[in-house]
Every structure is written in C-alpha cells, then in structure tokens.
Specification:
186 residues, mainly alpha, 9 helices, 77% helix
C-alpha cells in the first residue's frame, strides 16, 4: 500500500460522503503530513491508517460530519433506492402495479435496515458487500417470513407510489448539487 493509494481511497470516500472540498483538502493535507512523518520514521502507511483504509476514511468522515448531518441523507436515499427498485420491478413485469407480500416486504426492510446501520457505522458497503448483506440478512428473513406468513399479497403498489418514493432522494440530490461549489469560469 502506497501513500498515493491511501490518499486516493480517502479522497474518494470523502467525496462520496459529501465532505466539502475545503475540508477534504485540509484533511488530505493533514493525512499527507502524517504519512510523510511516518515514512521518515521508517513506518508504513498501514501503520498510520490501519489495514482497512476505507474504515479509516469513514471514521474520519464521521468525526468530521456528525450524525445529525448524515441522517437526512440516509433518510432521503433509502426511499429513493426502494422506489427505484420498485420502478425496475414495474418495468421488468411490465405492469402498473406490483404485488407486495410479507416475504418481499420483510426482505427489503431487513436489507434496508442492515445497510443503513452498517453504512452509518462503517461507511459505504459498496456493491459486493451489499450483495453479501442481501444473501446473509435478506434471504433468510424472506424464507422465514414466507414460511410463517405465506405468500399472500398484502397490498398492491401502483406505479405512481413507486415513483413518489423516489422524490425525497431526488430533492436531496438537487439540493446537494445546488450547494456544491461551482468551478470558476475562465
């Protein structure tokens, strides 16, 4: 692991988490100084950040961005993702309504809860770890719920309701885009 690799991973993680550019530059400068001091003392970058660079970056970002500022993003993005997945389900089945049964509902609620908890504590799960959460948490909950509650339809979710679920995330993303500093025109 090189200093450049550590800095790139941290920069990427902080950008994903919405750390503003000025704070990210300040954090990178501080981390660069720590890494250079460690190299001068004969220590490796791993001695400074540990084995898991993403976890290091996530913990620093959490310290920099308190929970009360991260919670609105999570609260907006969860229904956005659920709505997006439901819209895909509408498209795949070419229907204006999706039937929601207890198993499907429990599956998505368990995956959503596990993902939110893990991301708030540790940082972004990424695509691969997201699939692991789905397999380890979601599938057992799905099968158990279907065994206990059956596969009867609880309710039908219309296309407009699925689209409506995406609105908080879209509003949040637009607000973030407006808040982001624009590059100066030459």
């Amino acid at each position: 692991m090189t200093n450049e690799h550590v800095l790139a991973v941290c920069r990427s993680n902080w950008e994903y988490r919405g750390i503003d550019d000025a704070s990210a530059r300040e954090m990178l400068a501080e981390l660069t100084a720590h890494l250079e001091d460690a190299a001068a003392a004969g220590r490796t970058p791993e001695d400074v950040v540990g084995r898991d660079v993403k976890a290091f970056a996530a913990s620093w970002a959490r310290a920099r961005t308190p929970l009360h500022r991260r919670l609105p993003r999570t609260a907006a993005m969860v229904p956005f993702v659920v709505g997006g997945l439901l819209l895909v389900s509408h498209l795949v089945h070419w229907t204006t309504v999706v039937d929601i049964d207890a198993g499907r509902l429990a599956f998505w609620l368990s995956i959503g809860t596990a993902t939110v908890v893990l991301e708030l504590r540790r940082g972004s799960l990424g695509f691969g770890k997201g699939w692991i959460v789905a397999l380890v948490v979601g599938l057992p909950v799905l099968f158990l719920t279907q065994k206990l509650a059956g596969e009867e339809t609880l309710f039908l979710l219309p296309l407009w309701a699925s689209a409506l679920l995406t609105l908080p995330g879209i509003a949040y993303l637009l607000a973030e885009r407006r808040r982001a500093p624009r590059p100066a025109a030459s």
